[in-house]
Amino acid sequence: MFLKQYSKKTKHTRNSKHGKEHTYFRHVTLVVLKCDSCECEFERPKGSMDPKRVSNNYYHVCNSCDAKVFAQ
Predict the structure, then answer these.
(1) Predicted local confidence at residue 67, as pLDDT
(2) Residues 6+ apart with CB under 8 A from 8
(3) Residue 18: its pLDDT value, please?
(4) Which of 27, 30, 31, 65 has the most CB atoms at less than 10 Å from its CB?
């Protein structure tokens, strides 16, 4: 079950070709879902999901549950 979606700002550093360190920020959109098998809440990055699956029209299963057993 789809619960909510939020954005998270992460800070990273990289070295330039001249040896200086530069900091930069990335925004990652995370989706909070509720497992339809065990009722626990989990989150996944929205970019790794099919846009159609970010709704309540589909079943969502967490990593600790077996999706194939749930499908049967």
Answers:
(1) 74
(2) 27, 28, 29, 30
(3) 93
(4) 31
Which string of DSSP letters, residue by residue, matches the chain?
A: -EEEEEEEEEEEEEE-TTS-EEEEEEEEEEEEEE-TTT--EEEEEGGGS-GGGSSTTS----TTS-HHHHH-
Spatial CA neighbour of 59 closest among 72, 10, 19: 72
* pTM (2 d.p.): 0.70
50's tokens: 């099919």
Which amino acid is present at 57?
A: N
Residues 6+ apart with CB under 8 A from 30: 5, 6, 7, 8, 43, 44, 45, 46
Could you report the per-residue pLDDT of 25-69, keeping only the tens digit for each?
999 999 998 888 888 888 889 888 888 888 888 888 887 787 767
